[in-house]
């Protein structure tokens, strides 16, 4: 599982992540149910679980909003073939530059 995003993340405006699902030996996985669980380690936040839209070829786009700058943990949940797969990624989010 891969997550592609411009680095760094930007707080407040809408932001898109692309999740790519593959199975060995790298074949794309289509037809999965994909959502993210976004959290900030060490800070209690409300639930933030946007659902991904399929793009085809194993790619899924998720629109997110980060409510503040800092270090975020992205848990990608993908359900396919009756199994749930989870992968986690770190993202550093900054305030927008004017």
Index terms:
98 residues, mainly beta, Immunoglobulin-like, 4-stranded mixed β-sheet
Q: What can you tell me about this protein's structure?
A:
The protein has 98 residues and is mostly beta strands. The protein has one domain: Immunoglobulins (Immunoglobulin-like, Sandwich), CATH 2.60.40. It is 0% helix and 56% strand. The chain has no helices and 10 strands. The strands form 3 sheets. A 4-stranded antiparallel beta sheet has the order 1-3-8-7, with no helix packed on it. β4 and β5 form a beta hairpin. The mean pLDDT is 85.
Summary, kept brief:
Helices cover 0% and strands 56% of the residues. It is elongated. The protein has strands at 2-4, 9-10, 15-20, 22-23, 27-28, 33-39, 53-56, 59-64, 70-80, 83-94.
Q: What does the main sheet amount to?
A: 4 strands, antiparallel
What is the molecular shape? elongated
Mean pLDDT: 85
Radius of gyration: 14 Å
- Please tell me the CATH architecture by its name: Sandwich
Percent of residues in β-strands = over 45%
Furnish the topology, listing elements before pairings.
Blueprint (H helix, E strand, L loop, with lengths): L1 E3 L4 E2 L4 E6 L1 E2 L3 E2 L4 E7 L13 E4 L2 E6 L5 E11 L2 E12 L4
Parallel strand pairs: 2-10
Antiparallel strand pairs: 1-3, 3-8, 4-5, 6-9, 7-8, 9-10
